[in-house]
Amino acid sequence: MSRRKTITAALLLLIIFLCYYIVLSNKPFIEHLRKTNSFLYALISTVIMLTLGFSIGLTWNLLGNSQRSNKNNAIKDKRKERGGNNDP
Amino acid sequence: MILDIFAVVPLILMGFLVGILSGFFGFGGGFIITPFLFTLGLPMNVAVGTSIAQIMGTSVIATMRHRTLRHVDVKLGLITTAGAIVGVEIGAQLMESLKRISPKVLDLSVSSVYIVLLGFISVFMSLEAWRSKRRGKTEKPRSKISKGIRRIRIPPLISLSESGISSISIWLIVSLGFVTGVTAGFVGAGGGFLQVPLLIYLIGCRTTVAVGTNLFGMLIASIYACFSHAVKGNVDIFSAVYMLIGSAVGTQLGVSATRHVTEENLRFAFGACVGSIALSVAFETVSRVFHVPLLGFLSQATLVLTVFSLSSFIVIQALQFSKKSR
């Protein structure tokens, strides 16, 4: 389960980098939009920030859960080993 | 390309440092970012709008984190937001009317509000934290104040189970949201540095829930505020996007450090941070009005020194905590 979360987080990171690339490579178009169509510029700006925020937030949550799962599994493994050593 | 790097690196760095402070103190950081962008040379209206856009992105990240920790009272957040949305539009319209009179009048007005508001909060919280430390126990002024406020029983009354409040007038919460909304729309801030203390001291909310709920309310209000300011041409989306890169990482560090600091020290540090920002804005305002370049330099130095020293302190706390936990 934690591996799936790590892969999902990696895919989200890819999406984040892609979003940044699309935004920054279309700078002249977006600047032109700011001057000519304020409503569309406002809509695009809001969507960009929300998309990036959600993607980054979800990535952190997945990575955090993945790390916690790994730690919990490591603790469980240690307990099993200790339990095995204590057997008569 | 080299020119772009000189423009981009300070934005990412400031985003990172403000993200640390945001994660630690629970605010969006607008009252730091707006003066920072202002000192970089942006007009005040663009600094305010861009700051709100950055706050929106950061609060999405932070709210998602707090939600998993059950620090978000959705009912409380939605009601404060209802008041804030009305307030934000009034604040933004007020700014537009001042902009039409004169950009200098606008700059002076917003700067004055910053200085007075941040100065008051700084003195109040620093004194309260100092008294608490001196007496050796945590003071609870919020108990007396919030009890008095809750005596106002204008119906309808609601209960907020997540915040630990059995009964309170809905209009108190709407008013609180309205006040923070007007501030947010006018100065590009008004989230944590105003709403968190109001939720704790006036409503009587638990601190962690006040922080998480504030971020949730700030998210919804900032979506509307960002859109409203962007339509008016007040948002530089590229600056906001660069700052978000830094704040996405910084926020996580700041949140980790909160587990290692006492409540009194946190409030004292909050007061010190806010006071330094007020001083920085005061220097910049006087510099622009009386044309004294030295004060402008002093303003930037104060801001940078405050952000760097507080962020370093917080990062050291976070690293010390992670070493101890290993």
Short précis:
The complex is a heterodimer of chains A (88) and B (326). With 88 residues, chain A is mainly α.
Structural class of chain B: mainly alpha
Per DSSP, the total helix count of chain B is 12
The residue ranges of chain A in which pLDDT falls below 50 over 5 or more consecutive positions are 84-88
Helical residues, percent of chain A: over 70%
Ends distance of chain B: 43 Å
Task: List the topology elements.
The complex is a heterodimer of chains A (88) and B (326).
Chain A: H1 2-25, H2 27-36, H3 38-85
Helix pairs in contact in A: 1-3, 2-3
Chain B: H1 2-25, H2 30-40, H3 44-68, H4 74-101, H5 103-135, H6 141-150, E1 157-160, E2 165-169, H7 170-187, H8 192-203, H9 207-231, H10 237-257, H11 263-290, H12 293-325
List keywords for this structure.
A: mainly alpha; rod-shaped; B: 326 residues; mainly alpha; 12 helices; 82% helix
Give your account of this protein's structure.
The complex is a heterodimer of chains A (about 90) and B (about 325). With about 90 residues, chain A is mostly helical. In chain A, about 95% of the residues lie in helices and about 0% in strands. Chain A contains 3 helices and no strands. Mean pLDDT of chain A is about 75; it is low at about 85-88. With about 325 residues, chain B is mostly helical. In chain B, about 80% of the residues lie in helices and about 5% in strands. Chain B has a two-stranded antiparallel ribbon with strand order 1-2. In chain B, helix 1 packs across helix 12. The radius of gyration of chain B is 19 Å and the shape is globular. Chains A and B meet through helix 1, helix 2 and helix 3 of A and helix 3, helix 9 and helix 10 of B.
